[in-house]
Amino acid sequence: MNETVCITGASRGLGFELARLFYARGYRVFPLVRSPASAAALLREMPECRPIVADVADDGCTVAMRTALDEHSGTLDLLINNAGISGIADRFANVSPRETGELFNVHCSGIIRTVHGALPMLERSSNPRIINISSRLASLSKTAAGEFNQGGFTYSYRMAKAAQNMLTLCLHQELSGRGIHVSAVHPGKIQTGCAAHDADLKPHEAAENVFDWCRTAGPLNSGQFVEAGAGKLPW
Ligand SMILES: NC(=O)c1ccc[n+]([C@@H]2O[C@H](COP(=O)([O-])OP(=O)(O)OC[C@H]3O[C@@H](n4cnc5c(N)ncnc54)[C@H](OP(=O)(O)O)[C@@H]3O)[C@@H](O)[C@H]2O)c1
């Protein structure tokens, strides 16, 4: 039977290209989007997909996911936590607790909500995987080495993605013993809404690289932080 994948943030950018790619390769695709209009657009492009309309920043996301997956599949092989926002403030003088709270809510609490929603279905899969779309900017090692000293990256994004990486490791510690792969994947510097000034990849190129990682992900390479198509990254 074809594998089932749920991808958050599938209305555009990397998430949309991932949904298209998995769909084209015969997966049963559950794209999570925030609006009925986005769901309708996905259905025009992929008539057999099963959009879930939910906001990962809202607690209702957990029940929406669980209900849709349970009703239309009963099992889930792959959860890709891709939904993300980038924030605005790249200088400390402009950083606000409100913005950092919003970014943590999407990038960290959002994953807690989606995993709560998906876990019962993942536990029924023979090869369950949780792929958290991270960022090179999450790397404490790279940051400490001065790699991003040129600036231009927001505090809230870097903080939230670093915390998301810790969540990935915590989930790996708890879930890998139950056969569930959990990893953090930097998709490359993509020319999208979340793009950095040095973005050099088209969304469909990044999606191909992430797709390849998802295919090779399994119990033996859980707990890793990788750049899709390139190799391991330092935490
Ligand atoms: N672009 C890059 O160079 C780059 C590099 C490293 C990592 N990433 C990561 O890759 C992921 C995808 O980024 P992208 O470049 O494709 O960004 P994008 O084009 O801005 O797309 C972001 C997606 O996330 C959705 N989203 C945002 N907040 C959401 C929420 N609360 N609930 C549900 N969906 C939500 C958006 O939905 P709406 O259409 O409803 O807004 C949209 O579908 C993000 O996690 C990002 O941090 C990107």
UniProtKB/TrEMBL annotation:
Record Gene3D superfamilies: NAD(P)-binding Rossmann-like Domain (3.40.50.720)
UniProt xrefs under InterPro entries: NAD(P)-bd_dom_sf, SDR_enzymes, SDR_fam
One Pfam family named in its UniProt record: adh_short
Domain of life: Bacteria
Family that this chain belongs to: Belongs to the short-chain dehydrogenases/reductases (SDR) family.
PANTHER family, per database record: OXIDOREDUCTASE, SHORT CHAIN DEHYDROGENASE_REDUCTASE FAMILY SUPERFAMILY (AFU_ORTHOLOGUE AFUA_3G13450), SHORT-CHAIN DEHYDROGENASE/REDUCTASE SDR
Listed name of the protein: SDR family NAD(P)-dependent oxidoreductase
Gene source species: Paenibacillus hodogayensis
